[in-house]
Amino acid sequence: MAETIFSKIIRKEIPAKIVFESDTVLAFHDIHPKAPVHILIIPKIEIPSAREINGREHAQLLGDLFDAANQIAEDFGVRENGFRLIFNCGPDGGQEVYHLHMHLLAGKKLGF
Ligand code: 5GP
Questions:
Q1: Domain range spanning residue 65?
Q2: Who lines ligand 1 at CB under 6 A?
Q3: Looking at the domain assignment, is residue 97 inside a domain?
Q4: pTM of the prediction?
């Protein structure tokens, strides 16, 4: 699958408001926030969607994504009140960018 705009963000070829970076994970503000805090947390390797996730192969990477989410929630002061983590997957799941990403939404009481 062709690379996405997120690969360019990882390589710092286009700007993003980065809030967290490690060897395996990058996180930055969503360009169209749906909540007061809306961060995208992505693996640095290219995985198109959750459909390509295999527990045995990607366990460490998934742990890294969740560790990043908890760290970001702490940094933004929303860990105590709570937050929502979402992976949209495929067309019916509402996925637009085919580079695996976790949405972290917080900062207000979220409805469905
Ligand atoms: P999806 O619908 O694929 O789960 O979510 C993709 C998200 O990426 C959307 O919320 C969209 O606003 C965000 N997005 C798309 N292009 C860019 C971009 O170039 N920069 C940033 N920061 N966010 C983007």
A1: 5-106
A2: 5, 16, 28-32, 40, 88, 94-97
A3: yes
A4: 0.98
- Name the residue with the closest Cα to ligand 1, atom 13: 30
**Residue 60: which residues within 8 A CB-CB, separation 6 or more?**
24
Residue 89: give its domain's CATH number: 3.30.428.10
Half-sphere exposure of 85 (CA within 13 A, CB side): 17
Cite the active site residues. 101
What distance in angstroms lies between residue 42's CA and the mean position of ligand 1's atoms? 11
Burial class (CB in 10 A: 0-12, 13-18, 19+), 88: middle
pLDDT tens per residue, the chain (112 residues)? Answer: 689 999 999 999 999 999 999 999 999 999 999 999 999 999 999 999 999 999 999 999 999 999 999 999 999 999 999 999 999 999 999 999 999 999 999 999 999 8
Minimum-distance ligand 1 atom for the alpha carbon of 87: 4
